[in-house]
């Protein structure tokens, strides 16, 4: 009854909507809206274009054998990138994923070969060590409230040193290991293209994590915590519990990555993972996940990992120096982050 | 709780309404600074109680004590006639006191339905829910739509749109809807119109009235006198850590209220 001053009728609501409608009618802003809603679109487009271009540059690129090689090259970093995605979605970052994976792989190999335990026990030991590493990172982030960047920069060095101390810097050869440990390197054929069990395992992990992130309450809470920690807390979500579970889940995924790594290189080497820490971040970022947390998809990360694999492989088939591959990946990262920044401007 | 109320009032149908939430002689000091100096307050079903006061008058402290963000040194709080102790915001939340904070506690990247159900997601029925822990997206969207239309929020038709794509008023509406949904007993709104334009403020005020019409009592903290006078049934004026007066928009004018608030006039 007491209608206040100038405007308070239903028409104003429509006016509001009309204004918002006007405000996004340019094709560019509409594109931005779509990319904002589906962050995996841009990496998908980049991947398709890259495959077409490299296919035209060199006919060997689209060979089944070469495509198989690309998937194998992507398997380990693609798995680590799953763990990295979970952590980046919470607005964190993990510089130690590669180091944890290598430590876990050395534990798996040494427990089985040196200590003569059954291979399944070796795998479990590797899982326990990776979980402990995740728990340490998670503890430092949630209890001591240290920034994830600093925490994992520190634990990166700790884990690298532990790996070298534990293994005496020695590689364990695949030939000395029981078959179960190198099982991830065995191949099967689908329509003339050979895939390894490691690639299959990685894909299964993507499906599982994609399901969890999109279909469970926990998945939503991961996004909510990364999006706005305080808002999540006020909504009744236990932020430290979510963060801790994310670091533990990452640890478990890294242990599986360690197994895939042993199969891929048919060895467990303490020096295997130095590039993988940053490569996993590269895959996540190129896959459209925001480093500021709360936005991105796990499928984008798979696309990001594939893009890096395709670029490296395609450029090398095109006869370019390996340094140009690194150069191209660097350019991709900067482009991906710029696109993310541009997309985020949708926020008012 | 209705049972208990019914049993106390059994026999004689009492015309006097029992307050839902009361605070008696709350005292809160921060070192030598007295934040609250024996403040009492009563909130009745279906009313909008505004709390106004100058900066430092103790209105934030009062609200913090009522919503569990601070624990009062002395005094008693009752909800539905029973004494309650809120040690953390979650305690007040669990007891049915929902607070909409000035810094809107919504997750920008999640959609409207997900925000309404954040922290209390619905699960799918059967094995999909119990074993695979799947959330019931369809059900949540349906219920979210229902809640929004019950509250008369007409500007939010699409509950699948991300909150970051909404205007300030619409976001406020999401936050208020979340507080009002799920059978809460009391809704506390802290400066709900402070960051909004004229039109959006009016939408939020309309929302406050809708809440009251549904029987949910509202505590409204605001600096904005016209807004307070438009929606409040009673106005609690804080001054220097005490309740200077409790007035109604009918008994006093805005000028009176400001005079009491600043101490230029006694109530």
Summarize the structure.
The complex is a heterodimer of chains A (348) and B (267). Chain A is mainly alpha-helical and 348 residues long. Chain A contains 15 helices and 4 strands.
Keywords:
heterodimer, A: 348 residues, mainly alpha, ABC transporter involved in vitamin B12 uptake, BtuC, two-stranded antiparallel ribbon, two-stranded antiparallel sheet, 4 strands, globular, disordered N terminus, B: alpha/beta, Rossmann fold, 4-stranded antiparallel β-sheet, 10 strands, 23% strand, nucleotide-binding (chain B), ABC_transporter-like_CS (chain B), ABC_transporter-like_ATP-bd (chain B), ATP-binding (chain B), ATP binding (chain B)
What does this structure look like?
Chain B: InterPro entries: AAA+_ATPase, ABC_carbohydrate_import_ATPase, ABC_transporter-like_ATP-bd, ABC_transporter-like_CS, P-loop_NTPase. The complex is a heterodimer of chains A (348) and B (267). Chain A is mainly α. Chain A has 15 helices and four strands. Chain A has helices spanning 10-22, 27-37, 41-57, 64-89, 97-113, 119-142, 148-167, 179-182, 197-215, 217-227, 229-234, 239-265, 276-286, 298-317, 322-344; strands at 172-173, 187-190, 193-196, 267-268. In chain A, the strands form two sheets. A two-stranded antiparallel sheet of chain A has the order 1-4. The two termini of chain A are 33 Å apart. Chain B has a domain at 38-106 and 167-262: 3-Layer(aba) Sandwich (Rossmann fold), CATH 3.40.50.300. Chain B has helices at residues 2-8, 59-66, 89-95, 112-116, 126-130, 137-150, 168-180, 198-213, 225-231, 254-262; strands at 21-30, 33-43, 48-53, 74-79, 82-84, 97-100, 186-190, 218-221, 234-239, 242-247. The interface between A and B is large, with 39 and 42 residues.
CATH topology of the domain at 38-106 and 167-262 in chain B: Rossmann fold
Q: How many helices of chain A?
A: 15
Overall average pLDDT of chain A: 88
**Shape by Cα distribution of chain B:** globular
The pLDDT mean of chain B sits at: 84
What is the C-alpha radius of gyration of chain A, as a whole number of Å? 23 Å
Widest β-sheet, arrangement of strands of chain B: 6-7-8-3-9-10
> What is the N-to-C order of secondary-structure elements of chain B (H for helix, E for strand)?
HEEEHEEHEHHHHEHEHEEH
């Amino acid at each position: 009854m007491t209608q206040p001053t100038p405007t308070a009728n239903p028409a104003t609501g429509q006016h509001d909507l009309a204004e918002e409608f006007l405000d996004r009618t340019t094709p560019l802003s509409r594109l931005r809206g779509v990319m904002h809603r589906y962050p995996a679109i841009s990496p998908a487009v980049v991947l398709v274009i890259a495959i077409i271009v490299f296919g035209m540059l060199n006919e060997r690129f689209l060979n089944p054998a070469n495509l198989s090689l690309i998937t194998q090259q992507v398997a380990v970093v693609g798995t680590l990138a799953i763990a990295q995605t979970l952590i980046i979605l919470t607005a964190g970052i993990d510089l130690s994923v590669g180091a944890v994976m290598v430590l876990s792989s050395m534990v798996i190999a040494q427990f089985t070969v040196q200590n003569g335990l059954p291979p399944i026990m070796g795998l479990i030991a590797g899982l326990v060590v990776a979980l402990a590493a995740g728990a340490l990172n998670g503890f430092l982030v949630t209890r001591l409230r240290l920034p994830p960047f600093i925490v994992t920069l520190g634990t990166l060095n700790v884990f690298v040193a532990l790996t070298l101390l534990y293994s005496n810097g020695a590689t364990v050869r695949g030939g000395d290991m029981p078959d179960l440990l190198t099982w991830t390197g065995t191949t099967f054929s689908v329509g003339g293209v050979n895939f390894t069990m490691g690639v299959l395992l990685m894909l299964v992990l993507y499906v599982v994590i994609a399901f969890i992130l999109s279909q469970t309450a926990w998945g939503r809470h991961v996004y909510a915590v990364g999006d706005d920690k305080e808002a999540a807390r006020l909504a009744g979500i236990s932020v430290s519990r979510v963060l801790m579970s994310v670091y533990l889940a990452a640890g478990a995924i890294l242990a599986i990555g360690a197994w895939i790594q042993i199969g891929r290189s048919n060895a467990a080497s303490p020096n295997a993972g130095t590039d993988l820490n940053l490569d996993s971040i590269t895959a996540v970022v190129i896959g459209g996940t925001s480093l500021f947390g709360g936005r991105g998809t796990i499928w984008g990360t798979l696309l990001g990992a594939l893009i890096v694999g395709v670029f490296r492989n395609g450029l090398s088939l095109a006869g370019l120096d390996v340094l140009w591959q690194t150069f191209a990946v660097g350019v991709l990262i900067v482009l991906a982050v710029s696109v993310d920044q541009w997309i985020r401007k949708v926020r008012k | 709780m209705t049972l208990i109320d019914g049993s106390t009032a059994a026999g004689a149908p009492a015309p006097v309404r029992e307050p839902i939430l009361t605070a008696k002689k709350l005292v809160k000091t921060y070192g030598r600074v007295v934040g609250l100096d024996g403040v009492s307050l009563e909130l009745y079903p279906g009313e909008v109680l505004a709390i106004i006061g100058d900066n430092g008058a103790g209105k934030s402290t009062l609200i913090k004590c009522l919503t569990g963000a601070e624990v009062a040194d002395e005094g008693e709080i009752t909800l539905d006639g029973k004494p309650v102790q809120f040690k953390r915001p979650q305690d007040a939340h669990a007891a049915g006191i929902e607070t909409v904070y000035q810094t809107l506690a919504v997750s920008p990247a999640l959609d409207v339905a997900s925000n309404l159900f954040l922290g209390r997601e619905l699960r799918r029925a059967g094995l999909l829910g119990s074993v695979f822990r799947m959330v019931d997206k369809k059900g949540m969207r349906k219920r979210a739509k229902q809640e929004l239309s019950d509250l008369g929020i007409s500007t939010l038709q699409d509950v699948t749109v991300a909150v970051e794509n909404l205007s300030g008023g619409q976001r406020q509406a999401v936050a208020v809807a979340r507080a009002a949904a799920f059978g809460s007993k009391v809704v506390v709104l802290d400066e709900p119109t402070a960051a909004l334009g004229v039109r959006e403020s009016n939408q939020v005020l309309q929302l406050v009235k809708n809440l009251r019409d549904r029987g949910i009592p509202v505590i409204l903290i605001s600096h904005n006198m016209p807004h307070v006078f438009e929606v409040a049934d009673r106005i609690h004026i804080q001054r220097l850590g005490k309740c200077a007066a409790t007035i109604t928009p009918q008994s006093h004018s805005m000028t009176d209220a400001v005079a009491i608030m600043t101490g230029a006039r006694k109530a």
